């Protein structure tokens, strides 16, 4: 059944280009109708397009897959704008009115226009966040209607390279799709992740991406500072590669064994010779891997904390720090942030505040929050409607009924798939537990066998050969194949010593008897 009304959005990430289509419900929740993704590491770096042709190909593939799932054509999409060059700068525009004048909306708009005309080199203003207006000696957020002879507008301009949007526009033009609107990715992420209390009380939202880390500081429901740091979780992977490890293998090591920080107690207990390995293909000393990851994580957090301090709101974040993005899944990441920032209130947002429904389950690992935010920010129908196609009321009702049945079927399949995955995970856990128990039993039997052999060696030394052979028999009864050669060797050694000792005893006895007989004859 074809969808006729939906919103479509695209996120141009450094690892994936992801697309989503869905509907916004009356209660503010979102119904996801389609989802698609394509790898983008070979065409997007630090959130910015550097290979137009490959980006166009991936973009076309994602949108075509959305259309296939929707069974409808897409006319336009909302697209997120972010990346390394995006940052905030402060600007003020003042106007002397000469005499007491009531501030009008037109005057406020003229101040905003003057702010947007500020000259920038190789940059453009992507968005503007009004901070406040100084009216006389007062600071106001709503100055319209107030009488004064002086007004000053204070603005936070979000800027980025002028090629940022132009490259996106060119890729969409080549792909044959329109752009409904450019949406600033850090802002829609905040709308999806932060609750009203956090924005009002003051918080720092840290989006830990693959190539970049975005820091957004909020206070009194206003964005106060924005910066994109050109460091992310992929830098950790590249650092591990410096140990002569392939990038794919380095990524697996990071995912399996990575920790954001190592406590002093853990460091003391750690075996200096312990090694980490994945699938037996490669290994790295545990202490080396821990040091590599902790060093890079510390560098990223230091840069984050520096940006928070630059905002001048570092001591006003009553709601603390909220972490999201793929990098937030690194174990002990919140401990690492507490250690550097001394802020106790740390929350990890692996999913957003917006309820998501539908037959398509999105990953709840912090990587989908921006995409959901883009969909929630969209307003216009993105479906390409054929004006000549007429749908009567009865056909529409039948289509809605089929759509409802399809949704139920999708939900049922999703539930069954989740159940199947849960069963597989449970079986895998049981298998791992069984293997662990078998290893422990084998080790226990091996220890017992070694104990018998050690006792046999001791008894042999004391020339208690019979008892020593009994210990060897006990060791042999354990039937441990890898110890059989050692058991045979021990048995042969004991028997050889026993034989030699027996000959020597007889010889000694004979000599003593001859001496005794000789003494008797002399007498």
Automatic annotation (TrEMBL):
Claim: Coiled coil is one of the keywords in the record: yes
InterPro entries named among the record's database cross-references: ATPase_NBD, Cell_div_FtsA, FtsA/MreB, SHS2_FtsA
Entry similarity comment: Belongs to the FtsA/MreB family.
Protein name: Cell division protein FtsA
Function of the molecule: Cell division protein that is involved in the assembly of the Z ring. May serve as a membrane anchor for the Z ring.
Membrane topology: Peripheral membrane protein
GO biological process terms held by the UniProt record: cell division
Source species of the chain: Bacteroides caecicola
Main location per the UniProt record: membrane
């Amino acid at each position: 059944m074809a969808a006729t009304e939906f919103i479509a959005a695209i996120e141009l990430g450094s690892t994936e280009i992801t697309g989503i289509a869905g509907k916004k419900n009356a209660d503010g929740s979102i119904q996801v109708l389609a989802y698609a993704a394509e790898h983008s590491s070979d065409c997007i770096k630090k959130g910015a397009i550097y290979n137009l042709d490959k980006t166009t190909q991936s973009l076309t593939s994602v949108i075509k897959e959305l259309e296939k799932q929707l069974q409808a054509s897409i006319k336009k999409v909302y697209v997120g704008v972010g990346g390394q060059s995006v940052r905030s700068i402060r600007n003020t525009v003042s106007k002397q009115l000469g005499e007491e004048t009531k501030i009008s909306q037109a005057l406020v708009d003229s101040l905003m226009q003057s702010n947007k005309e500020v000259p920038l080199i190789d940059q453009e203003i992507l968005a503007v966040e009004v901070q406040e207006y100084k009216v006389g000696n007062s600071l106001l957020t709503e100055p319209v209607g107030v009488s004064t002879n002086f007004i000053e507008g204070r603005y936070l301009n979000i800027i980025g390279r002028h090629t940022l949007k132009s490259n996106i526009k060119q890729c969409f033009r080549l792909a044959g799709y329109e752009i409904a609107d450019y949406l600033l990715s850090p802002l829609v992420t905040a709308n999806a992740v932060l609750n009203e209390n956090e924005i009002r009380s003051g918080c720092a939202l840290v989006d830990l991406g693959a190539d970049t880390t975005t820091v957004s500081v909020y206070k009194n429901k206003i964005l106060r500072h924005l910066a994109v740091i050109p460091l992310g979780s992929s830098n950790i992977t590249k650092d591990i590669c410096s140990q002569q490890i392939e990038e794919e293998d380095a990524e697996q090591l990071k995912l399996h064994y990575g920790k954001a920080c190592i406590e002093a107690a853990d460091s003391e207990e750690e075996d200096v010779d312990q090694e980490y390995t994945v699938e037996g293909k490669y290994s790295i000393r545990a202490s080396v891997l821990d040091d590599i990851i902790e060093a890079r994580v510390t560098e990223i957090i230091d840069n984050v904390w520096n940006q928070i301090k630059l905002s001048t709101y570092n001591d006003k974040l009553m709601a603390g720090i909220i972490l999201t993005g793929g990098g937030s899944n690194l174990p002990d990441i919140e401990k690492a942030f507490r250690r550097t920032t001394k802020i106790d209130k740390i929350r990890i947002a692996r999913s957003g505040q917006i309820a998501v429904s539908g037959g398509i389950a999105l990953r709840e690992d912090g990587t989908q929050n921006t995409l959901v935010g883009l969909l929630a920010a969209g307003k216009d129908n993105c479906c390409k409607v054929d004006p000549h196609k007429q749908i009567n009321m009865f056909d529409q009702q039948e289509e809605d009924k089929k759509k409802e049945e399809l949704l139920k079927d999708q939900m049922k399949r999703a539930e069954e798939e989740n159940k199947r995955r849960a069963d597989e995970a449970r079986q895998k856990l049981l298998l791992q537990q069984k293997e662990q128990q078998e290893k422990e039993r084998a080790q226990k039997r091996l220890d017992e066998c070694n104990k018998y052999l050690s006792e046999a060696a001791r008894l042999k030394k004391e020339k208690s050969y019979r008892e020593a052979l009994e210990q060897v028999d006990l060791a042999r009864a354990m039937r441990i194949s890898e110890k059989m050669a050692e058991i045979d060797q021990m048995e042969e050694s004991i028997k050889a010593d026993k034989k030699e000792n027996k000959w020597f005893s007889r010889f000694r006895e004979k000599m003593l008897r001859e001496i005794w007989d000789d003494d008797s004859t002399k007498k």
